Amino acid sequence: MWLKTLKKQAFLLIVVLGTFTGQVFASNAKMADEQNLQVYLEQVIGQGKARNYKNLDELNRVSAWIKEQMRLLGVPCHYQNFTANQQIYRNVVCSLNVGRADRVIVGAHYDVFGDQDGADDNASGVAGVIETARILAEQKFKLPNNVDFVFYSLEEPPFSKTEQMGSYVHAKSVQAQKDKIKGVYILEMIGFFSEQPIQSYPVGLKWIYPSHGNFIATVSNVSSRDLGAGYCAAMQQLDQLECQRLVAPSFANAFDFSDHLNYWEFDIPAVMITDTAFYRNGHYHTKADRLATLNLTKMANVIDGLVQHLLKP
Q: What SUPFAM superfamilies does this protein map onto (predicted)?
């Protein structure tokens, strides 16, 4: 069973006695900190121009801040430059190497659609990756795999579902090592929750899944279904936030709205962890997608589950 303490101002430790698999999960893992998330979100959102593809200076500001923040956490990074629309854009690729043969990838896009803050889409995902990196860097001696943290540019239209997406560029660059990649975890909008019956779904799914919007979801394809299962198992053990799984068939196009799609293209197992985006959040791609609408406590729960999953022996 799990023994949990209440989270106050300091980081807390959780002691895990693994009953789900009969093994001991990562014990004494520090939990995600809401104040850290607040700072990360404020820095990514900024106070200037929107970080869309037209505002290259703002994209460069955000990517430079990410690189420096990760350096302060002890995780070195480099820029992966690529050309789109006759401009040079950049992913930020950061590596936490612990001497293992295999690796996992945790990623999120940092650009926005249009002229808006993009708090949920996708400053929330970026903040989640950074906080995950902070905790894993402190617990790196327990990691069973090396971990790459990747921050992508150009996920949004007009580049979505093209080879100019930052995640396509990155996925293509690692395809030769795909046998060493245990899985890719994409954080795509992880901050909007509601206990009200606001949740919608593609046709046919509303009879299977909850009507409330108070859960985190994983979307995988058949070959990556174990990633989603493992993450939801960790969330179940933490018992903080409900986790729902969806395994999408290869022909489905209702679930390919983020960066996991490009890893699927190269037969690399990938899962999207999401609050379900426009199926829940009515602020999607509008100026109403602001920091005040996010639930930082539940964001922290999402990260806690990912940390527990990645630290699992």
A: Zn-dependent exopeptidases
What DSSP designation does 56 have? H
SS3 12: coil
H or E, element range at 49: none
* pLDDT (tens digit per residue) in 170-199: 999 999 999 999 999 999 999 999 999 999
Give CA–CA dist 138/19, Å, rounded.
25
Residue count of the chain: 313
Residue carrying structure tokens 């046998």: 179
Q: Which residues contact 39 (CB under 8 A, 6 or more apart)?
A: none
- Residue pair 25/311 in contact by the 8 Å Cβ criterion: yes
Burial (0-12, 13-18, 19+ Cβ within 10 Å), 195 = exposed
Distance (Å, whole) CA 234 – CA 185: 14
Delimit the domains of the chain by residue range: 32-309
Specify the residue for token string 């121009």. Answer: 49
Write down the CATH number for the domain with range 32-309.
Answer: 3.40.630.10
pLDDT digits (tens, 9 = 90+) for 201-229: 888 788 889 999 999 999 999 999 999 99
Q: How many helices (H) and strands (E) does the chain have?
A: 7, 11
Per the structure block, which two tokens stand in for 272? 């999207």
For helices 124-138 and 56-72, what crossing angle results, to 10°? 20
Could you tell me which of 183, 180, 266 has the C-alpha nearest to residue 218?
Answer: 183
Cα distances (Å, whole numbers) of residue 112 to 54, 245, 251: 10, 26, 27
**DSSP per-residue codes, 238-292:** HTSSEEEEEE--TT--SS--STHHHHHHTT--EEEEES-GGGT-TTTTSTT--GG
User: How many angstroms separate the CA atoms of 271 and 293, rounded?
Assistant: 25
Half-sphere exposure of 136 (CA within 13 A, CB side): 33
Specify the residue for token string 């290259």.
56
The candidate with the shortest Cα–Cα distance to 153, out of 81, 216, 72, 215, is 81
Provide the whole-model pTM.
0.90
